[in-house]
Task: inverse folding
């Protein structure tokens, strides 16, 4: 079933499609901004469902850019859009002009959503940065000071972790963390509370620990490239402080690290309030990255 669109009938240059493992987002966008958004569930999706959804919305567009982590769905969109397009949808890969370098052993193996996130991050300003994308898997995508995509981290998402725990044990129930839910108590007084504490606080701790290490790595790379000490007003996470475990970088305020950290995805708001490093949650970051890449792929004709 489609989620409500921001605008029922609109026309713009780009149709942008973000196919995830759980959900599909479709956005209509101009060169400057997204003007309408709708969604479909990935499971059970058919070309007829896509066609019916777009027909009902009445959207009009010139170019289509598809970002997909479910290759089987690409064919469905090609079929659904065949009548409306003079050209097949462009499917994002590492060969596109992203506005940044790719410094990675096998660029073809990078997920298209991660490329779009990196493009969106670079557009926010100069300097190194990280995107944390909370989906079926949580991904950390890393852009250095050049800017160049250099890799990242992939870990199981919250729902995947809790579902697997219920599936593989006889007595543990299935739990679900809800958006806007208050943090559970640290000490669970029931089995359900104990599982919620493990999922929420454990996941937040994992994200903080990974970000601490990634930020320290980016700082060291930038210092090595410039052969200079950190700029005034920025800290280094590799500096030990009193009361912090030996050999582990301390928590630092985000504005002092010199590294931008953005979050997106369905569980971002749930966990980010517990993060020491995430500066902003951008719900449609991947779609915004697709819009930026589309502008580079189909440049505006010179006047």
Result:
């Amino acid at each position: 079933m489609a989620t409500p669109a921001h605008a029922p009938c609109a026309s713009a240059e780009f149709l942008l499609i973000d196919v995830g493992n759980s959900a599909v987002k479709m956005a209509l966008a101009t060169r400057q901004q997204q003007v309408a958004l709708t969604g479909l569930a990935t499971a059970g999706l058919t070309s007829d469902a896509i066609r019916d959804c777009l027909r009902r919305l009445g959207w009009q567009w010139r170019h289509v850019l598809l970002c997909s982590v479910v290759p089987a769905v690409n064919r469905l969109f090609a079929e659904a859009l065949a009548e409306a397009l003079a050209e097949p949808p462009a499917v994002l890969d590492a060969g596109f002009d992203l506005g940044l370098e790719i410094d990675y052993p096998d660029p073809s193996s990078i997920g298209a959503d991660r490329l779009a996130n990196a493009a969106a991050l670079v557009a926010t300003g100069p300097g190194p940065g990280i995107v944390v994308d909370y989906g079926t898997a949580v991904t950390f995508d890393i852009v250095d000071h050049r800017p160049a995509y250099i890799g990242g981290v992939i870990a199981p998402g919250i729902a995947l972790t809790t579902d697997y725990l219920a599936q593989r044990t006889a007595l543990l129930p299935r739990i679900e963390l809800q958006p806007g839910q208050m943090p559970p108590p640290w000490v669970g007084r029931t089995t359900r509370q104990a599982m919620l504490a493990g999922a929420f606080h454990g996941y937040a701790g994992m994200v903080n620990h990974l970000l601490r290490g990634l930020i320290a790595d980016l700082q060291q790379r930038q210092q090595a490239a410039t052969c200079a000490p950190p700029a005034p007003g920025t800290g280094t996470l590799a500096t030990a402080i009193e009361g912090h475990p030996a050999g582990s970088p301390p928590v630092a305020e985000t504005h002092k690290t010199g590294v931008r950290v953005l979050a997106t995805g369905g569980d971002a708001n749930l966990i980010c309030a517990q993060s020491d490093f995430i500066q902003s949650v951008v719900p449609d970051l991947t779609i915004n990255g697709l819009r930026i890449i589309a502008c580079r792929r189909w440049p505006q004709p010179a006047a």
